[in-house]
Amino acid sequence: MSLNNNPKTFNLGAGFKFKGGAPAGPSGVRIEHRVGIQAPPETIWEVLYDLPGWSKWNPLYVEAEGQIRIGSTLRLKMVLPGEAAQDIRPVVLEWVPHEQLHWRLSLMWGMVSNTRYIEIEKLGETSCIVSNGELFGGLFGPSVAKRLGRKVWKGFEAMDLALKEEAEARWRQAQGAPTSQS
């Protein structure tokens, strides 16, 4: 049977759904910002992996503590544009050096369950695309995304531009490589 004949097999807005009781992928409302960075994935990862260093460059997470390892709880102070600072404690779901960091945040007794991701896609030796996003799930996740979506996207944009500046500066300093500003 083709996917076109069975619309319940794949639902673009709600993630993958499989027949026969197999687990479904994450569902919810996705907000994402992407940025090109003229630095190798190792340099970008070095910036992301240094959580205490986030306070020096990251306008979205102005304080960050914890260890990036599966199951660990991070302590982050998040500042969305136009909103009060909020202390959050997400749990690391998975991470792959030089490629990705995913965490989950549960709010309102699980009524809002967000999956946050930062993914590095290598395009060339010294060029990458970083996808910075969040999937708002749970009963009230879509409502929260609707209310805060623009601010969340602006926060991701500010973080991405700051990450780009920091990673390119580190790469330029270490290698003398050109940046997108050159």
A few lines on this structure:
By secondary structure, the chain is an alpha+beta fold.
Query: Level of helix content?
Result: 25-40%
Helical segment count: 3
Strand order of the largest sheet: 3-10-9-8-7
Rg estimate, integer Å: 18 Å
Strand content: 25-35%
Backbone shape: globular
- Order of SSEs: EEEHHEEEEEEEH
Q: How is the main sheet built?
A: 5 strands, antiparallel
Unreliable segments of 5+ consecutive residues: 1-23
Structural class: alpha+beta
Mean pLDDT: 86
Count the beta strands: 10
What can you see in these coordinates?
With 182 residues, the protein is an alpha+beta fold. It is built from 3 helices and 10 strands, in the order βββααβββββββα. The strands form 3 sheets. The protein has a 5-stranded antiparallel β-sheet with strand order 3-10-9-8-7, with helices on one face. Helix 1 (41-49) packs across helix 3. It starts with 9 loop residues before the first strand and ends in a 7-residue tail after the last helix.
Explain the layout of strands and helices:
Elements: E1 10-11, E2 15-16, E3 29-37, H1 41-49, H2 54-57, E4 61-65, E5 75-78, E6 86-88, E7 91-96, E8 100-107, E9 112-124, E10 127-137, H3 141-175
Helix pairs in contact: 1-3
